[in-house]
Amino acid sequence: MSIYEKIGGAPAVDAAVDLFYRKVLGDDRISHFFDSVDMDAQIAKQKSFLTMVFGGPNSYTGKDMREAHKHMSLTEEHFNAVAENLVGTLQELGVAEEDINEIAGIAMSVKDDVLNK
Ligand code: HEM
Question: For a Cys-Cys bond, which of 23, 74, 101, 104 suits 85, CB 3.0-4.6 Å?
């Protein structure tokens, strides 16, 4: 079973991404990156990206992770803050620990691209 199915499919991804960006926008380590971003569009893109990398239906048409983030000069601290908000979101939604670990691993797998390393 894919991690997408394990956590509960589209409704679970929808709930997670909505809560995740609420946390991100409330986190002053990283919220400024989103000041001029259309958050409805961002939320939609993130839902389709995570659906794809979690093994659900692939409808992602956005940029690859290196292209999307390379102009932002992101640091390890920024990445860790995002990862922390993602894990906190999944914990709050009651996702099983082993599933959270799998998702954290997926997030780590794009780290070098996001940080343009
Ligand atoms: C696991 C790590 C991450 C994933 C999976 C991820 C995913 C994405 C995706 C799918 C997009 C949309 C790309 C497009 O527009 O086509 C995006 C854009 C963006 N990401 Fe990330 N991201 C990650 C880390 C970060 C970090 C660490 C930051 C900053 C703290 C960040 C800030 C942004 C911003 C500001 C945009 C919007 C760009 C714009 O529309 O101008 N992301 N990200």
Answer: 23
Q: Ligand 1 pocket, 68 CB below 6 A? A: yes
Q: What is the CATH number of the domain that holds 64?
A: 1.10.490.10
Question: CA of 81: how far to CAs of 11, 46, 86, in Å?
Answer: 24, 17, 9
Helix (H/G/I), strand (E/B), else coil: 60: coil
For ligand 1, is residue 17 a contact (CB within 6 Å)? no
Identify the domain containing residue 9 by its residue range.
Answer: 3-114
Q: Which of 55, 50, 41, 58 is nearest to 17 (CA)?
A: 50
| pLDDT tens string 78-90 | 999 999 999 999 9
Q: Number of folded domains in the chain?
A: 1
